[in-house]
Amino acid sequence: MPKASTSNEPNTPANVGEPTKVAGSAKPAEPAKPAKPAEPAKPAKPTKPAERIFTPRFVAGFAVNFILYMQYYALMVAMAGYSAMQFAAGATEGGFTASVFILGALCARLFFAGAIDKIGRGKVLIACMTGEVACTLLYLAFEHVPAIGVFIALRFLHGAFYGLSQTTVTSIVSESIPFSRKGEGVGYYMLSVTLGAALGPLLGSAFSNAGDFDALFFACIGMIAVGYFAALMVVTPGRVKRKTGKALVSAGVTQSAFAQKESIQAGDVRAGSVAGQSKAHGAQVASIDKTSGKSAAVSAAESPRSASRKRKISLSNFIEVSALPVSVAITVGYLAYGALITYINPYAVEVGLTDAAGFFFVAYSIAMFVTRPFTGRWFDSAGDKGIMTLGYACLAASMLIMGFAQNGAMLLAAAALAGVGVGSVQPNGLVLAMRGCADDRLTAANSTYFVLLDVAIGLCPILLGWIAPAFGYRTLFLVMVPVVAASYVIYMAFRRAGLIVAKGK
């Protein structure tokens, strides 16, 4: 019995429960609750605002680009009719009043895009949008000054302001898009082009068919005035000075140290556990600030390229060489798009599908509008190869169906495939063109890309115009299938050679 009593004592609930709770209870693990210093992992949340695409700057830039394109297309479709009415111009002169606008844009982009970053993108955008407003107002003056030569000069000047405005606002917006969502963001942004290209001709045709060109010019004045105020919103919010950062990097200062400086200046340092570290960071910041001025001078002295750029006229003054491979590759395939916009109407007459042709670009725009955001996300998550392959395949299929179209359904199917193809290749190609260049060459890369695409559209009638009279429009579109295939082969060859920066930095 004494045995039983001694054995029962340790087995009493009181004796057993308390020691084991103390030994293995979660209460001593409560020191692990200071794992709430794991809340510094919540710096993941402050970064989420930086990952937004639809910032005020993005929305304002979208509005500016949309208005620029809408006005461009509205005036483009009306110029031949206006020239015939106002100046008694023939078909050749009337056509030239339309095309000289593109010539002005090409010249401005080619010769002045390299200077935009040096002067300041904000200054250039406001100056060129002011020029846009002035040129649009001057159209009204030709009711009393019937001089077609002066009008052509005005169209050229207007095109130059348009080219620089569009290039500059695209550079500003592209830089503001988070790198991790660059493809998606550019896809959304390029919808401004799609909408402008869809609505502009409708506006221009409506006024042109009614013969009310003054009303068209007043409508364009109203549009560009809205665009001007939107441009002010583009250049105002959150200006970032990057030169200090670049100077620091060139001096050999680590990126992490510079990031610490930025976080301290932005007030991201929390009170409490981080407060003790802020002093050390402050010391680093001070040392960084002291060295930044010196490093800028040293880097300027040690960089003969930057010195020679100022003194010599070189290719880099006009184009961004790193953007050439992807631009050249996509330009070849863009001849197919040039064939579409140039020859869709005479082709429809030839095959008896004029009714369906009236909805061709509606189907094209809807397909592009719907697919561009998704193709951008695909680009960001999986890289360029898959989405570019799909884009080229859709564009080639579109040309093939165009060559054999027997009814309206086939024609609209070709339009939808062309929308998916162009909507996949063009915006993602722009991302690739800008990816391989330095920040201060972003505008030049953007300009290089669009100059070559514009050249493709301009050269299309010259390179392909002989095919239709000799063999018919069906053959012309069938010829585009191997042209698109050749563009894809060139793209992949440049990619394999490392000339296209397929992966992000």
Can you tell me about this structure?
This protein has helices at 2-8, 13-24, 44-50, 56-87, 91-119, 121-138, 148-176, 182-210, 213-235, 243-250, 255-265, 275-302, 304-311, 324-351, 354-357, 360-382, 384-404, 408-435, 442-464, 467-471, 473-496. The chain has 505 residues and is mostly helical. It has three domains: 53-240, Up-down Bundle (Growth Hormone, Chain: A), CATH 1.20.1250.20; 243-296; 319-505, MFS general substrate transporter like domains (Growth Hormone, Chain: A, Up-down Bundle). Helix 4 runs parallel beside helix 8 and helix 10 packs across helix 12 (275-302).
Shape assignment: globular
Helix and strand string, N-terminal first? HHHHHHHHHHHHHHHHHHHHH
Number of helices: 21
Q: What is the CATH topology of the largest domain?
A: Growth Hormone, Chain: A
Query: Can you identify the CATH superfamily of the largest domain?
Result: MFS general substrate transporter like domains
- Estimate percent helicity: over 70%
Q: Can you give the mean pLDDT?
A: 77
Q: Radius of gyration in whole Å, from Cα?
A: 30 Å
Examine the secondary-structure arrangement and name the CATH architecture of the largest domain: Up-down Bundle
Structural class: mainly alpha
Characterize the largest beta sheet: strand count, sense, and whether it forms a barrel: none
